[in-house]
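tool=predict chain=A
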Amino acid sequence: MTQRILVLNAGSSSLKFATFAASGSDVPSLDLRGQLAGIGQGEPKLTVTDEHGNRARWGKAEHMATHADAVRLLIERLLMQDRPEEWLGAGHRIVHGGARFSEPVKVTPETLKELVALIPLAPLHQPHNVAPIEALQAALPELPQVACFDTAFHACQPEIAMRFALPEKYWQAGLRRYGFHGLSYEAILQALPAAAGGVPKRLVVAHLGNGASMAAINEGKCIATTMGFSTLDGLVMGTRAGSIDPGVLLHLLRDGMSREELEKLLYHESGVKGVSGLTADMKTLLESSDPKAQLAIDVYCYRIGRELGSLAAALGGLDALVFTGGVGENAAPIRAQVCTDAAWLGLHLDKEANRRGDARISAAGSRVAAWIVATDEELTIARHTQRLLRR
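tool=predict ok
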C-alpha cells in the first residue's frame, strides 16, 4: 500500500496544500496541489490541480474565518476519504525556527510549545504556521506531523554574517540575522542539477515575489542572505520596505506614531505599493503608464542590484544567478533590468531567451550564467517529511 503525505504551507490569509505519494526513492510523487486564498476575507477562493496541472473539481469553499477552518475543510475532503494508515503524515512550513531548530523535526507537545514561544520573532507569520498543526492535532491526534523551517537553511552561515554590532547579551538573547525563504532555496539546489547540469560553486539565488530575498550560496551552503532578524530586512518587496535606516523608525516613534501603526506601515503599506501608491502587484505595475509605477520598479531593481553586489563580494566572485519566485519566474522586464545592471560582474543577457522564459537566459560566452528555476517548497517539505517519518 502506497502511503500519502499531506503538505501545508500557510500564509497570512492563504493556505497552500499538496498531497504526495511516498516513494522508495528520495523524491515523493505529486498527487495534487491547491490553495485556499482569502481566509478571513469573505468567501475564499479554492483552486486545486492534479499532478498534470489540470484543474480538479473540488466544489466551493464555504466562509472560513481562520486557518483552523481551512484545515477542517482539508480533513473532510482529503484525510477522511482514506483509512488513517494510508497517510504517512503531514509536513508544515514554519517560518521561524529561532536558534533552536536547524533541521526539520517531528512535532511533539514540547516542540509545539517551542514553536508558539517563537511567535514574537515572526508575529505575522508564525501564528498561521502553528494553527494548522494545532487543528490537525485536535482532529487526528495519531497523525504524525513534521515541522520544516525557513530559517534552517541559513543556520550554517558564519557567525560574522549573523552578528549585529550589539552587546553580547543581545546575541545570547537570539538577536541575529536568521534569514528566511530557506525551503525555497533548498528546492532550487535540488532542481539545479537537472536544469543546469550541476550546482555552481559561487551562486546567488534571487527569490522574488511579494516577499523577496536573496542568498549567497558557496558550494551548496548559505554564507549570507538579505533577510535578517525578521522578514522586513533586505530587498524592497510588495508591501515591505526592506532595509531602512533605524533612525527613520526612531523618528516616526518620536513623532507620535504608535508601535501598531509602525508595524502596519512596515509590513503592509510600504514596498512597491508604498512607492507607487497603486498596488503591490508587479504585473500591474509593469503594465501601468503611471510614472510612479516605473519609479517603484526602478527602486525595486536598484535594491536587487545593490544586494547582488554585496552577496558577490561575500562569495569572492560570482558564477551564476538564479531567478525564482512569482516575480523572478514570470517578470521578464525585471530579470532584464537586473541582468543589465549586473554587466559589471560579467553577466550578459540573452534578450530573446529571457523574453521566452527559457531555463538559461544568459548569452553564450557570458562569464556569469543566469537561470530561471521554478521553486517548489511543497516538494521540499514532502521530502523532509518522508525522510524523517521513515527513519
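The chain has two domains: 4-149, 196-372. The longest strand covers residues 29-37.
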